[in-house]
Design goal:
Oligomer: single chain
Number of strands: 11
Shape: globular
Largest sheet: 7 strands, mixed
Strand content: over 45%
Radius of gyration: 14 Å
Distance between the termini: 40 Å
Number of helices: 0
Structural class: mainly beta
Order of helices and strands: EEEEEEEEEEE
Length: about 130
């Protein structure tokens, strides 16, 4: 089993920055990809960014538009750095992990991930 824990959420003014971290524990060595998703009230969970733990290859949702970056801080910690935050970025942010050996189809669907964190709230105020 793998446990994921997100930290770093909070309240920030529009135009500000926030960094989220996702720490994996347990059988973290079995993970090949880590993604960030978000879910706003009344909306479906949506893909934000993903990174391959081995190669460091990244992918971003179109709405990120260069404002966010995902990085590997260590073998067990993946961060999401968010700049130029807007009101629409308000959501609960979740990190998710994909297990090695399963088919990878790009990681934009929540169904591709095996483990999820509890989420961290990000609120952007005007």
């Amino acid at each position: 089993q793998v446990q994921l824990a997100e930290t770093g959420g909070g309240l920030v003014q529009a135009g500000g920055s926030l960094s989220l971290s996702c720490v994996a524990s347990g059988r973290a060595f079995t993970l090949s990809y880590v993604g960030w998703f978000r879910q706003a009230p009344g909306k479906e969970r949506e893909f934000v960014a993903a990174i391959a733990r081995g190669s460091g290859t990244t992918d971003y949702a179109d709405f990120v538009q260069g404002r966010f970056s995902i990085s590997r801080d260590s073998w067990t910690t993946i961060s999401l750095h968010m700049n130029s935050l807007i009101l629409d970025d308000t959501a609960i942010y979740y990190c998710a992990a994909h297990t090695m050996g399963r088919t990878w189809n790009g990681g934009r669907s929540p169904t591709e991930y095996d483990f999820w964190g509890q989420g961290t709230q990000v609120t952007v105020s005007s």
